[in-house]
């Protein structure tokens, strides 16, 4: 080839034997969703193995947490999975509440559930649009962003921010909901299932889409469990595990909803699982806005948050999987140790197993189906 | 109908006549095409935008009508970058080949009866041959960039083009068998003689030609050479400015060229729909209706525009366009020979535009094939079906010529046999299965 | 009109250039291209004579020559690829061993 | 007059680019010049009333065989080739031998010019070209045609076998 052994930002190939090539995708590559670098060892056309090289977006979020007071750190967690900031906030606030032994009042829990489910839908919509774009369908992106926009408008009206919301406070909510909040959620839910049908019309039975995703990136239930993979990927492989059901938090124990699971654990199943999850989220939303209780929105946690010494691990079902916060308190206003268990980071481990034996074009689809956010992988 | 350029013939010196008339035609075709290409890009952006619930270009001129000009100027004025280590001669040559291959083909396309730059008796072979030269623009551009993405894109593209050219060739053969000539205008005339467009007796060949045409022009769902999620922009990743615009021009001109070939071979070229049906003669006023609609559209949109002074130019422009269209419509009504003169070109362009709309529609709808899937589709499905179609088309022709069966009937027997083969072939590939994910409890 | 001799001259020149290429270049690819030049010189001869004798047979033979050229190119390039894979070279004078 | 002018332009183009084919160091350049040679030859064929062959030349040679060449050039490593000497060691002798050959050919043509040439056929003699070729090919030369198809098949199988990974 024209320039072997030349390394560029985008791609780098080295001819090893006549057959084995190392292809470097990223960190500046349009479909690695940020600054992921994947080193692929190719056996001819097929991927023999892969290696993820991460850390390009490392900001030391966990270390920052140890140098900030508990409330001060809350906005930082929004910057980990920046497309699902509300879920991050929920996980952190509940973890600190658990450490304090406090519990948010019912109204706060209900509002938290509504916002988190909206966030789940928004995150899945973003995933669907970009995943379809990776596979070459440009139109779904605009459809999904149309709906995501509605959700972001609700966030903006609620807390003034669209992306990095900092929606919750330790002990409950900072703000009371605005007038017409429930109605807006209701209006959103009213035609959202029709919108999902619209996406399905474009993709689900589209022969090219099926061919591109069916049996691509298969991961079996055993492997998924062994690797600690969570979220839609685990459920796509047929494991019915959802923390909202298994260890209910916020107000999830109050609502009826189903956990969709796949059978084959391939990209197509994960696609269907996520679509169904959006429908279930809509179901939760409809129940929640009907039953939202009145009352205070903030528990009495005091002005200065100073948890007793001890440690806590609290996890929630974020859109991408299990999001856990492990906090060690030494009795001061700052955590002694703070550790985030980000779903993307753990799920990304499965990439190597998923891409083996597939073609380079499939790697793009598989990275898309894992639904990683590099802010969360690198922290 | 006569060649509109022949009007000039008596005024020219005899020696120059054989040079000047073709040159004039070439000039008209070239300029017209460049304009059409510019506005095809605009149409693509607008149509895609409307498919994707957005507006598309709206700022430059009323409804973004001047956007192509702005884009062209921008591309012309951009810095011209040649990557280090690139082979500068080939880097310069490649886009030129791309454009030349696409534009030269038009010399053999009959836009109307007698409106053809040169009517060679092997015209069809020449068009196919020359348009296949476009592949050099792609391979050489990808290779000379001295970069990996362009190289991979170029190799993919070359493999794809070579594969689908086979299917394209077989699809063309059936039109050839029906008309018994390789001359482009002869093929249209054969369709007039038979009184039926070949698409109605050879639908499978038309379909294969259509799919192969999409693949040949690297359009979605076969746009792998430019798969942005995998190969950035494919073979023209390193190109910018004027050279990039040349590629752009060549790509869209190639789209129009393959559409023109398909229209000529299967959709009756310059003939209006149902030319043999007398009472549909009023259709010859379709250009009038089109321009009248343009006038209506312009006026209606001018009404909707804000009255603020900064909108004055936009409003004036729209009104001007509407007025121009109205004048044209009036001329068509008032002077019947003019309507007759534009008939051929009008219907030809209408059909080409319908084709191009299909191209754009697909782009807004389909995901992209993977490379091996694309190759499998080409070699395992398209080419066998195309070969079967050619054979059964021949069988149909024998039935017609030797046994005296009806033309359409015998060809439809061939088509049905082809469809049978296609069905057998598709039985081998896996049909999309029902969804397996069901809600649990 | 152009005398047929002119075409023959051109053909001779082309043939010779092809022969020079085959004899002097090291790169097998260029050698194959030179062979194409030689075959084209032959074609030009055939077609020129077909024109002069107004007999289409010359053109038929040119078609056969093109067929042979296609076959030659395919096999030649196939050999070249196989060769490059085992010997990492495309130079004709480095291929001097009988065992690979 | 026009035809003569055409001929000289095309002949010059053919010869010059043919020389470039065998002298360029970079095989890709060689391919491009070979394409130019083949194109101008195709145009000469048109002038010789062989439109069908011109089209075949463009489709098969330029659109097929040359693409194959380019493909192979991109598959094999060129960096090494570009740094090596382009000509082999005996190129002086080889060039001399080829020049002798040219001399011989020209001499033969020169001495043969006196022999009575056949009258040039009327320009329409080979028309309609495609039909004539088709009829002749399938009536008088059907067996060679079929043999050629077998040859192509063999070549195809051979090429696949050669290029296949072992």
Question: Which secondary structure elements does this structure contain, and how are they paired or packed?
Answer:
The complex is a heterotetramer of chains A (379), B (441), C (100) and D (166).
Chain A: E1 13-15, E2 20-25, E3 37-43, E4 46-53, H1 61-66, H2 70-77, H3 85-100, H4 106-134, H5 139-159, E5 168-169, E6 172-173, H6 181-203, H7 207-213, H8 221-226, H9 232-236, H10 243-246, E7 260-261, H11 267-291, E8 310-318, E9 321-329, E10 335-341, H12 343-348, H13 351-355, H14 360-370, H15 374-378
Antiparallel strand pairs in A: 1-2, 2-3, 3-4, 5-6, 8-9, 9-10
Helix pairs in contact in A: 2-3, 3-4, 4-5, 4-11, 4-14, 5-6, 6-11
Chain C: H1 4-24, H2 28-52, H3 57-87
Chain D: H1 2-23, H2 27-47, H3 51-75, H4 78-83, H5 91-112, H6 129-139, H7 142-163
Structural summary, described in words:
- The complex is a heterotetramer of chains A (379), B (441), C (100) and D (166).
- Chain A is an alpha+beta fold and 379 residues long.
- Chain A is built from 15 helices and 10 strands.
- Chain A has a 4-stranded antiparallel beta sheet. A 3-stranded antiparallel beta sheet of chain A has the order 8-9-10.
- Chain B is 68% helix and 0% strand.
- Chain B is globular.
- The C terminus of chain B is likely disordered.
- Chain C has 100 residues and is mainly alpha-helical.
- The termini of chain C are far apart.
- The longest helix of chain C has 31 residues.
- Chain D has 2 domains: 79 residues, Four Helix Bundle (Hemerythrin (Met), subunit A) (Up-down Bundle); 39 residues.
- With 166 residues, chain D is mainly α.
- In chain D, helix 1 packs antiparallel against helix 2 and helix 2 packs antiparallel against helix 3.
- Chains in contact: A-B, A-D, B-D, C-D.
- The interface between C and D is large, with 73 and 87 residues.
